[in-house]
Amino acid sequence: MIKTINLTNTETKITELGGDNTEIINNSSGIVYASKMPNITVGGDDVIAIPAGSIDGLYGTHGTVYILGSGSVELRGVDHHIAKARGQAATDISGTGVSASYVDEKCSEILKNANAYTDIKNSEVVVSVKEYTDEKNAQTLDSVKKYADSLNAELAGFIGYTDSDIYGLEADFENCVFTRLAGAVGKNAGADFDGVNAYGGRRRCNLSDDGEVLAYYGDENFKADGSNGQVMVEQPKFYYRVVPLKTEKIDKADGYHLRKARYYISDTPKAGFKVHPAFVRNDVEVDKIYLSAFEGCIYDTSAEVYLLEDEQIADFDNDKLSSIADAKPCSGTSQRLTRANARKLARNRGSGWTQWTAQASSVTQLLFIIEYAAFDAQREIGMGITSKTDDGKSNLAEKTGMTLSVENRSGSVLSGSVSFRGEENVWGNIWTWVDGIDVNNPTDFSVEKSGRFFVGNPVCDNEIFTDTNIPSLYGNGAVSAFGYSEKFDWLFLPTELKGNTTLPVGDFCWNINKNGMVAVLGGYWCENDRSGIFYWLFNYAPANNVRVIGTRLVYYPIK
User: Fold this and answer.
1) Domain range spanning residue 490?
2) Sorting pLDDT into bands at 50, 70 and 90, what band is 130?
3) How far from 368 is each of 193, 198, 479, CA to CA, in Å?
4) What's phi and psi for 138, nearest 5 deg?
5) Which among 70, 98, 126 is the end of a domain?
6) For 12, which of 85, 223, 279, 402 is 20 to 30 Å away at the CA?
7) Is residue 404 part of a domain?
């Protein structure tokens, strides 16, 4: 509100001006005094003197002021700043009623605020730029480090690792030359490798159905007869790398032979290495898995006894696959021990149990070749039970547990049974189903027409079979080359059969049937020198049950 008052040299109270502050324009010819308080004293506190023709004001009046003087004054209740500071002259600008002092004050205030804002923003920008630069530098350094590590890993792969805690083998399949690498140089198979956890950490144990180790071999309460759990081999996790030095395009098939390669393992992670897939379940790594110490027999849950003579009475919905000593390995002589039913028997033992897998068999294969600098297990450890005369109708496999005296080492015994660091008869005695490998052969399968290998992981909740990009080739004979696929570089699937029973691998392969086939491994009691840990047979369909095929247990801990 604006009020015009004519003063008569008497203190006058003006009210209802509105606003928080009061602007006073002195239109008289003399000085006017103003205050928020009554009883104005010239020169007193809270009293302002407004010269003639000037503008000044009071703050915090809230609509009421006291005026002393004579002549006309104009009062305005306002909420903004007053035109001039106390005691300073004010000059009206172009008749607008805005004083120069007000403009100067506002400009000064704006400049001050602008400078402060600029300083703050400059500081924020500097901090942000520094943080951004630090972050980007860190990212760049990390990327450079990772790239350098990758290059170093690639370089080390081709030049060759020299680390004492990496153990390797260079396999020149064309020239049948096998050379120890890195920490394996100068070592001999056996005790020299006991200090490597992947080897020395392998030991027979009693395992409960829920995965608890109840005893280790050598403990007073260790039992091999199944009375204290299943007899398994505890296998510590390890990391591996395969470096393909020479590959060759396969004639008339989509895929590659691996002609020369370096195979490495390590107990600890290394640049360029991967955890072996046998230690991955549902995308979660496990520190150990448990491999069957013996070929499988069956536990009859209704009678609560182990079937020690391969009695053909399995109840696949309820009975359990077992690993104990002094039992004839189970077979499909007359009972339906198909791949699927063998898997059911294993899983009947509980969560985490399954039958032997492609991943688990690869663990044994890879560890063997690096320790022995060779592929022929028969030559290095023993022939196995492979020289019997077949009767064409029976399961002639010898009973399990013959290598208990070998303890956790590798070796053979008089009966012919063999052991690789606790795993008995991985080759010979009876073929073993290997779960997780499907062979997709065409209906016109021939030397001119190849099939495909597909691999899944039976321990995963949602098993998906994936094309390995390794072709399935028609024929039979001694293995001279394995197929190579970067994603499935841990597999040892034959793609050429031009070797002999000694070199470069020493084992045979059969693959002559059309349509969908599956895998068995190792050979049986009458295969002689064709057997071994790389002796694959792809001639059976998944629904077949055969007297020469058995199965083995594997346990994957649940996390």
Assistant:
1) 429-541
2) confident
3) 11, 11, 17
4) -65, -45
5) 98
6) 85
7) no
